[in-house]
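Entry type: protein chain
Record version: 2
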Amino acid sequence: MKILLASLGTAGDVHPFLAIGRHLADCGHDVELLGSPAYASLAAGAGIGFCGVGRASDLEAALGHHYVWHPINGFGVLWRYLARPAMADTFNRIEAVFRAQPCVLLYSPFLMPAARIANEKLGVPAISAYTAPAMIRNHYPPVSIAHWQLPRWMPRALCKRAWELLDRRKMQPLALPAVEAMRHSLGLAPLRQSIFGDWIHAPERGITLFPDWFAPATPDWPAQIRQAGFPLYDGDAGGGLSRATRAFLAGGSAPLVFTAGSAMQQAREFFAAAVSAAKALGERALLMSNAADQVPADLPGTVLHTRYEPYSLLLPAARAFIHHGGIGSSAQALRAGVPQLVVPHAYDQFDNARRLEQLGVARILGGDASASRRLQRQLHALLRASAVGTACALAATRFQGDRTLQTIQQAIEEFA
């Protein structure tokens, strides 16, 4: 069976689809990923087909934008620089494949509106895939809108009004012109729904790429959504850790592992604070960043800078993991059973952080993470909290016998 996967964003947005694609290909399906040309090599490494949509420079422009990590304005950057330019390519490729052979489409909804349009116009069987709970709006606690968490006592009617206000002031003006222009060109009627609250969901089937113990369904979720689990991906795990990292881990106590995310290009102050906090606590530290210019030049012998390492191999050797709250990083840390300090910036990160805190495996550092004393205090408290270690061990057991990929495979095959 031909299966199209469609995802845009950072590596963390694409990795779950690579895990799914590799599993489906191993089961004999013909799998093709539609994504930024920048990720062609990742698809090749996963052993699946690939079609670039948009340009690699679109991703570079988005991730280099000053506001891309702004809690309110960040999504607008991704929409204008990444999602909108890829719409025509996405629709055209889906149409070409669908007219040539039967296929099923699994797509990430927020940055792939053309996939939903193809579903509506052409009748392509489509499943919307939700990498994080924040992608599904709800009116039951906890309700997170950007960096705000609505009070648990707030009536559901007021939560609904908050979402409507966000749509009216921000989301509809941002996305409606491009969506309506493509719909009009294809002879589709004007939308009468909220784009991100209602229309973007595939009407027949949806599946979460996170488990119910991380975020249980609420009564107001779309009825067609099923829950699966975390489809974790370490494409380069077969190559092992780098020689320098292996030597560093063998040379002393378990280090604090810091990352600001694979796509972050604005982390100089964060990594400087990390070095200072680790020194003050008498801890060793490993700083992960693909951008060497984000890391202090003169590191002490107790601190190592490395490019990204396979989380499945690195995190079990960490004393604690300090990260941005991306869903992939969060899930990998849960599987490793390592305490987490989460420093969220934008998107789903705030909601993920709160859910990790509710599970008892993490603390949240809000505000200015570049203040080394605040970072030091939070780390000191995290490392001394025995209850966190107990919660981490419990979370890790939830991954034993995991059948996430088989569940997703079954959902796709049954739908086809």
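Comment: The longest strand covers residues 30-35.
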